[in-house]
Design a protein that fits this description.
D-Maltodextrin-Binding Protein, domain 2, globular
Length: 330
């Protein structure tokens, strides 16, 4: 015999409430429980460089503060595009993050004909780690002692003055082109596959000038093997107090590489805020600041909103420079 007794209304309401609570409570509980497993930090470059080493310095301490290991996963290729695209399509749950580099995030979109991600739409900024200062150095035989003399010297040579960089479309290359636009210098770009060989050629006299990161140049400057002309940060460096900034000759000029951490778009704000809070604390710890400084990176540690504003501004700034210089990579 079929039971036709109506299901108690109170029971129906209880079941409905339980179902609604499960839907609402699930994601919230997952965020409160974050992190409950290791976090992958994708570095879209090969191991051993300044960017990779900086990521590892931060990852170890960040993992300790979060209570879970932060595992650095190197995924190089296409000037950082491959590893960055991996994170753009990863689950937005806070367990896959990317080490963002300005060359990849704000320059590549302008120099590559096709980039497999959208810096603004596919990512949410977490925090900047710091800025890597760039420097202009020359072989001692180059007669110029100041930036103004270097610009004048380049203009006096019909063939211009050759300069090297770590590669086409990299931050040093774009910074040098920006300097050309602002000064009318006759600098001729010689791209290298990394800054190491370029520095070797400057020391050996095969290349007269190099735009590069301070970290790689400092030992050669201290030994007198190359001549430091100017740095392109806003202020002079404590490690090179006698080297002027480019801005002292070209007011308003500033060009530094930055690194920071970003998450896939739609990552819950509570998770972004948690990582940002701990990362900010990490990069301001004295020993971490010192270790980053040895790599030529000045610790920053800003908010998600502040980092996002810089990314937007840099996208605009470098779009204008790349267009003016005609830099393109197919």
């Amino acid at each position: 015999m079929t039971n036709t007794t109506p299901f108690p209304r109170r029971r129906l309401l209880a079941l409905a409430f339980a179902a609604a609570s499960a839907v609402a409570f699930g994601p919230a509980h997952a965020q409160q429980d974050y992190p409950n497993k290791p976090i992958r930090l994708v570095v879209p470059f090969t191991p051993g460089g300044v960017t990779d080493t900086g990521a590892r310095v931060v990852a170890e301490r960040l993992g300790a503060r979060l209570g879970q290991q932060v595992v650095v996963d190197n995924r190089p290729g296409a000037s950082g595009n491959i590893g960055t695209q991996m994170v753009a399509t990863a689950a937005p749950d806070g367990y896959t993050l990317v080490l963002g580099f300005d060359g990849t995030m704000v320059i590549n979109p302008h120099v590559f004909s096709k980039v497999p991600f959208d810096t603004v739409k596919d990512f949410v900024p977490v925090s900047k780690i710091g800025d890597a200062v760039l420097i202009i150095v020359t072989h001692p035989s180059v007669p110029a002692k100041t930036l103004a003399e270097l610009v004048a010297y380049s203009k006096s040579n019909p063939g211009g003055l050759s300069y090297g960089s770590s590669g086409t479309g990299g931050t040093p290359h774009v910074a040098a082109e920006m300097l050309k636009v602002k000064t009318g210098a006759n600098f001729v770009h010689i791209p290298y596959k990394g800054g190491g060989q370029a520095m070797t050629d400057v020391v050996g006299g095969q290349l007269p000038m190099l735009y590069t990161a301070v970290a790689g140049a400092l030992p050669f400057v201290e030994k007198g093997q190359v001549k430091a002309i100017a740095i392109s940060s806003a202020q002079r460096l404590p490690s090179l107090p006698n080297v002027p900034t480019v801005a002292e000759t070209v007011p308003g000029f500033e060009a530094s590489s930055w690194i920071g951490i970003l998450a896939p778009a739609k990552t819950p704000k509570a998770i972004v805020d948690r990582v940002q809070k701990e990362l900010h604390a990490v990069v301001n710890e004295p020993d971490i600041k010192e270790r980053l400084a040895k790599l030529g990176i000045t610790s920053v540690g800003n908010t998600s909103e502040e980092f996002g504003k810089q990314i937007q501004a840099d996208l605009k700034k470098y779009a204008d420079v790349v267009k003016a210089a005609g830099i393109k990579i197919d």
